[in-house]
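User: Hand in any protein.

Assistant:
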Amino acid sequence: MSNLEREAAPSLCGGRGFVVAEPVRELLSPRHVKLGESSEVRRLLPNLGRRMVGAWCFVDHYGPDDIADEPGMQVPPHPHMGLQTVSWLHEGEVLHRDSTGSRQMIRPRELGLMTSGRAISHSEESPRSHARFLHGAQLWVALPDGHRHTDPRFEHHADLPVVTAPGVKATLILGDLDGATSPGTAYTPITGADLALSRGADVRLPLEPDFEYAVLSMSGEAHVDSVPVLPGSMLYLGCGRSELPLRAESDAGLMLLGGEPFEEELIMFWNWIGRSQEEIEQARRDWMEGSRFGEVKGYDGDPLPAPELPPTPLKPRGRVR
């Protein structure tokens, strides 16, 4: 899933001006966004006053949705540049197709990682015969300047490292955690982990003090650093932490997102990340003219048209230290 809003607005991301250099407890409420006729997601990033967590720049949480009598996810071909997409499921399955020729079914707790680089297009859909429930998260990682024009590629990793302690099982999605390293390709110092907490768990998770972190609640009742975090909300934690207290009132699912604060200034418009108005304008022309982003073969439907650019100039913002 991606940003399918027809009235897209630019997001001004990056820069140290948005970084809190000490531990905080900032609870972020989602914005509810309709996708298509019947789907709705809870958008946590970009959020009012909080644009990024490390290189993580886009977070949607969706479900659990009962799609037994519905087609489920149906996202037509659309473009990306300058970012990586991370597809993560707790329930259901999603068929990924892209313009490099990749075709892959993604299942719960398997990593679908697409690096757009200079340009890619893809589609995502529930298979015709699918599980009753669909529940997951779609996330983006901003690519740093030195890698944002790289060749597009898709990775699928079904066997991911797992870190365990009494009451918690952490599946490493991207980057590093407690000595484990994900096989997914990362271009900045980053952490992404799925945390399964058992009822009554009371643990402390090791963190990197130089990273900033946030925790997304997927399910259940959990306290993160003594703050209750309900499903579909996210707690921003700032920097300066060497460990994170977690306590579960019931079986709970969380996602830990973190990384070294991203210093570069960005423009995020629709499904593109760039550095200038001209880059975004060129990307829109290329997509609408059918060049550069390639073709997604096998999807039964037309690609998505790009939204109109806003009348005001797009400018990157943020304060670089």
About this structure: Confidence is low (pLDDT under 50) at residues 11-17.
